[in-house]
Write a structure and sequence with these properties.
seven-stranded mixed β-sheet, eight-stranded mixed β-sheet, globular, 810 residues, alpha/beta
Length: 810
């Protein structure tokens, strides 16, 4: 077995140096006006050293170092320049409705209530003028029930009225950064448009001839054929496999894919490119064309397929790699797998270096790199076992199939742990079944599409067979994803832990090479020391102080209080609407990252969906000792689920009333101020007409620091508190009522509270206009420091009982 030598893979080495430069620029936020001149200066220095080395051979080592510096600075400069291509639109245009003019550059995705598409922006118009610009924006156009959908298609020029926004950074500790993701895919702005009445078509044709006349019609033909030959979610699954159209796959099914460790098959995988290359190479070969012609036609077919799938990173990578192998076969040169992978990376990063931070790019390249590096070593070990009998030969074949899955899983394990917060245990077994089944479905899908060009009934026959295979595959995935041991939670896994993991993986795979193994042991010890001595991120660090976290759950409330003794209070759990469950998507992951498995007290301030929506998930996934609520019933499916979960989990339930004290939280004293008898009758079978004024209001005291949590209390409940408690309301921190609405935070109430800090929990660009400018001005006039989740995301504070400080979790 030959040992991998980096010196034999120059393109791979070059890609590593470029990637190093990109990462350095990203980590240290290096400015382009410094990097670009430094890059050209390094080129000049490398040239000078190279010419000097011709007279002085001893300088060759310096030449190598200079070239490495040029490559690293080149990668850093490329990222700096790509970042500078980000949105030039000023923030002043993001505060209200604007008119945008542009052209659709990708086929629109039509869902039940929305149409989403990418538009190349040309101009933004406001009442005071116009701004010429050129950047890609992602448009979401809502579809009212009584409105027929707009017939939008690629190349149309549109004028749209709506609101612009920027993709945001991570909104909560450890969360996905949509800014990083969308910028890596060339999208710098979002636009939200309410209804087709706010859109006008300016031109029905446009865009490139190839896309509008060839690629888009081909894509539509494929989608129509798949709809005609397969049904239900199996059809949506097949669309995702063949051309990356995954919008029709339901959230529960997506979750099952993640839990069972086969989420990678939802994307158009590089193996599809191998199938396409094989089909066309075979077909063109049957025509008895010269090999050069067969290769050129196959390359053209691969390029066509890449465009049809939207040029997704796995397909681009696989297309480049396959092209290198095909060209090498004509030139009778054996392609180096590592070099091919390096060339693919260099081409993609040369187009846009921000692709490095795309999850799909990382998973794709690491999976292939792991297979290329680890599989030959695994295969050699398997071959050494011998194959004396037919049964043993079959066993070894199965082991080789497993080895491919194991190699890919090992290479992507740290990425999966970081990005998805879970690592599948059952994934190895599931992949052995699912990957071959998916491969067969892909082949049948292509055959169905090709057959439909000649005969519908033949296409339907192939589609029917594929339907059975797809239904069976989905059943396997749902069953394996639902098992209790399907995955392990990795919410507390940090990116830094990947360093010793990969070094250990290299060490284990090179034990037979003592010289390499000794060096890797040394590197492993260094990496373990780095992990031990580098402080953990704020997302998982504990300091022994009282910590209060106001999570960004959109238009809703969710707060987490952690005492020094390790007791936990959750106040509200955010909204649940459409496919977003704040309990599942935000609160539960945050708790897991903090290492929390038990909630000592879950407080539901009142049963509106934006406060109680995520509670069922918290009750189902965590050990909740006690629930406290106002006792007001509502008629909603979320509330019914909440009550059902309380019964099933055998949680204790307390009905909050003014004057109560909450015990057993160490030095943290908790007083319940509301609801008062003025708003709550003894008979709780009928709810109060204004649930906001039945909100559970809590005042907490820890040393000299006090905090007032007001739920959605409005003016009437605030006045009741002023009359009852007077100066007792004075608090260091105020969680303002009703998301900063003008119906709350009256001047008289604020005069009593005298907050030093005010927290407003509201959703970005929410339709209610929260928080009210009057409330914000009122607070700032009192010299109160105002923090808003819609502006900065989660707000985390810590106190030792004497001072209250803001935690910089980013």
């Amino acid at each position: 077995m030959s040992t991998f030598r980096l010196s034999a893979s120059p393109a791979f080495r070059l890609s590593l140096l470029i990637i190093t430069g990109i990462l350095l620029c990203h980590w240290f936020d290096l400015p382009g006006d410094v990097l670009v001149p430094a890059f050209f200066a390094a080129i000049l220095m490398a040239c000078i050293v190279f010419f000097l080395s011709r007279q002085r051979p001893g300088l060759m080592a310096t030449v190598t170092q200079a070239i490495m510096l040029v490559c690293i600075l080149g990668g850093a400069s490329k990222l700096a320049m790509d970042r500078d291509r980000s949105s030039y639109v000023p923030d002043s245009l993001l505060s209200g409705d604007v008119i945008t003019l542009g052209r659709i550059v990708e086929p629109p995705h039509v869902a039940e209530k929305t149409i989403r598409f990418v538009m190349e922006l040309r101009e933004i118009r406001t009442d005071v003028g116009a701004l010429k610009t050129k950047e890609n924006i992602r448009v979401t156009l809502t579809r009212p029930r009584n409105e027929s959908p707009l017939q939008l298609r690629y190349g149309m020029a549109l004028a749209l009225r709506g609101r612009l926004s920027r993709p945001s950074e991570a909104r909560n500790p450890g969360e996905f950064s949509e800014k990083q993701y969308y910028e890596a895919n060339g999208i710098t702005l979002f636009m939200f448009v309410r209804g087709g009445s706010n859109g006008v078509m300016l031109d029905s044709t446009g865009g490139s001839w190839l896309m509008s006349r060839v690629i888009v019609p081909a894509r539509e033909y494929i989608l129509n054929t798949l709809d005609a030959t397969t049904d239900g979610e199996s059809a949506e699954f097949l669309k995702g496999l063949l051309i990356g159209e995954r919008g029709g796959i339901s959230a529960p099914t997506r979750q099952a894919f993640t839990n069972s460790g086969v989420a990678h098959v939802l994307a158009v995988s590089g193996s599809n490119v191998v199938v396409v290359a094989g089909i066309f190479f075979f077909v063109f070969g049957l025509l008895r064309l010269p090999k050069v012609a067969v290769v050129l036609l196959t390359l053209a077919a691969l390029g066509f397929y890449m465009l049809v799938t939207g040029s997704q990173p796995p397909v681009v990578r696989a297309t480049i790699t396959a092209s290198i192998f095909l060209i090498g076969s004509v030139l009778q040169v054996r392609a180096n797998s590592f070099n091919s992978l390096g060339v693919a990376a260099l081409i993609i990063l040369a187009i846009d270096s921000r692709q490095l931070f795309d999850v799909g790019f990382q998973l794709s390249f690491m999976a292939v790199l792991s297979i290329v590096y680890l599989y030959p070593k695994m295969n050699a070990w398997i071959s050494s076992l011998g194959s004396d009998t037919m049964i043993w030969s079959a066993t070894l074949f199965l082991l080789r199939v497993c080895a491919v899955s194991v190699a890919a899983s090992l290479g992507t394990l740290p990425l999966t742990a970081v990005y998805f917060g879970k690592v599948s245990i059952i994934g190895l077994l599931a992949n052995i079944v699912v990957i071959p089944a998916v491969g067969a479905s892909v082949v049948l899908g292509f055959v169905t599409i090709m057959a439909s060009l000649f005969s519908n009934w033949i296409a339907e026959a192939y589609g029917a067979v594929n339907q059975l295979l797809l239904d069976w595959t989905l059943w396997i995935i749902r069953v394996s994803g639902a098992t209790s041991f399907a995955y392990v939670d990795t919410s507390r896994f940090q990116s830094l832990y990947a360093l010793p993991f990969y070094v250990l993986l290299l060490l284990l795979s090179n034990l037979s090479v003592p010289r390499v193994a000794k060096r890797l042991v040394f590197v492993l010890l260094i990496s373990l020391n780095i992990v031990v001595f580098v402080p953990p991120s704020a997302a998982v660090a504990t300091t022994g102080n009282l910590r209060v976290s106001f999570l960004d759950v959109g238009q809703g409330d969710a707060s987490v209080i952690e005492t020094p003794e390790g007791r936990v209070i959750v106040i509200d759990a955010g909204p649940k609407a459409n496919e977003y469950d704040a309990g599942e998507r935000t609160v539960a992951p945050f708790l897991r990252r903090r290492g929390i498995s038990r909630v000592d007290l879950l407080v539901i301030s009142h049963p509106h969906d934006d406060h109680i929506g995520g509670a069922p998930h918290i009750l189902e996934q965590f050990d909740v000792a006690e629930v406290m609520e106002s006792g007001q019933p509502v008629k909603s499916s979320t509330y019914r689920q909440y009550l059902s979960d309380i019964r099933e989990e055998h949680c204790g339930v307390d009905t909050a009333r003014s004057g109560m004290l909450v015990a057993n939280f160490g030095d943290l004293r908790i007083h319940l101020l509301c609801p008062t008898p003025s708003f709550i009758d003894a008979d709780t079978t009928h709810r109060h007409p204004n649930l906001n004024n039945t909100s559970v209001v809590m005042r907490m005291q820890y040393g000299n620091i006090s905090m007032l949590f007001t739920g959605d209390a409005e003016e009437e409940e605030e006045q009741e508190m002023v009359d009852r408690y007077g100066d007792f309301l004075q608090s260091t921190l105020l969680k303002t009522g009703h998301h900063g609405s003008k119906t709350s935070s009256t001047q008289e109430f604020l005069d009593r509270v005298q907050p030093k800090y005010a927290i407003i929990s509201a959703g970005r660009y929410n339709k209610f206009g929260h928080p009210s400018p009057e409330v914000v001005s009122r607070l700032r006039a009192m010299q109160t420091e105002v923090y808003r989740t819609d502006e900065v995301g989660a707000i985390i504070l810590e106190t030792d009982g004497t001072t209250l400080s803001l935690v910089d979790w980013r």
